[in-house]
Amino acid sequence: MAITDILSTKDIESALSSCQAADSFNYKSFFSTVGLSSKTPDQIKKVFGILDQDNSGFIEEEELQLFLKMFSSSARVLTASETKAFLAAGDIDGDGKIGVEEFQSLVQA
């Protein structure tokens, strides 16, 4: 499954263009612009599965750093501070990674 099966290419391009500069990534505005905030829990789980590159059931810090590249290979990697802030926002139970339920909460926040 491709991310474009769930999200439109136009919305992805728009969301990525809004955070091209280093340290400009804001997960709330990104999720809203890309259209993920308005998707069903099942669709959000499918996107989580795409982002969980190693199929561990979690999105770890290394995968978060490459978050934007999952939407487009030409996108930039997140900076260390963006990655840490993103992880802190999503890691509700403090285990250092984001599970599917945590991701759904983060998307719908």
Briefly summarize what is shown:
The chain contains 6 helices and 2 strands. It is globular, with a radius of gyration of 12 Å.
Descriptive account of the structure:
- The relative contact order is 0.17.
- Helix content is 48%, strand content 4%.
- The protein is built from 6 helices and 2 strands; from the N terminus they run αααβααβα.
- It has one domain (3-108): Recoverin, domain 1, CATH 1.10.238.10.
- The protein has helices at 9-17, 27-34, 41-51, 61-65, 80-90, 100-107; strands at 58-59, 98-99.
- Helix 3 (41-51) packs across helix 6.
- Belongs to the parvalbumin family.
- Ca(2+) 2 binds at residues 91, 93, 95, 97, 102.
- Keywords: Calcium, Metal-binding, Repeat.
Which CATH class is shown?
Mainly Alpha
Number-wise, the strands total 2
What is the CA-CA span between the terminal residues? Answer: 25 Å
Strand numbers in spatial order across the main sheet: 1-2
- Low-confidence segments, given as residue ranges, are none
Task: Give the strand content.
Answer: under 5%
Secondary-structure-based class equals mainly alpha
Task: Give structural attributes.
single chain, 109 residues, mainly alpha, Recoverin, domain 1, two-stranded antiparallel ribbon, 6 helices, 4% strand, calcium, Parvalbumin, repeat, EF_hand_dom
